[in-house]
């Protein structure tokens, strides 16, 4: 089941990163840096919009390196057959202030990354193995959906509800590149039924019986929202 990323796929990912970060037509969502780098000091107790810069004299090559994409995640016994492996600033401190992050997505057969929103970033979704159906919904309730195979890319605009579903019958792997070091995520089921919105509001909104609303709230108030 282990999915390996081969040389051509790595090249595609690197090209994607550069296009996302430096293209004149694709501006980073975060503020531009004012120095060569600002490696995140993850131990600092100072709160800023991002992370405090590490002392440059203490910076090492490891601060710019992440090796967590080498092997497939274990998708066995997961609820939706989907496991994200992020390389955000917490895992890759050198990303701090660069307006960029990347995530590996491993899907079991029929695995699903259900409807969710990234409030702070657009997403470039690159399939490197398998067949994945992706789609997003616009603010006028129009669905744009596509079936992607190895080497295909799909763009998801910032702040729009979207999903990814492995429909190929075998394990699938994809990479998501974000134009923010912290894209944020809101999963619709947790936001609606696990956040404490009053029953009366949900009942009137969805035109459902109180008993059904209670079941949904019990299901999603006890689940832990992902950080992706």
UniProtKB/TrEMBL annotation:
Protein name: Uncharacterized protein
Originating species: Diphasiastrum complanatum (Issler's clubmoss)
Taxonomic classification: Eukaryota, Viridiplantae, Streptophyta, Embryophyta, Tracheophyta
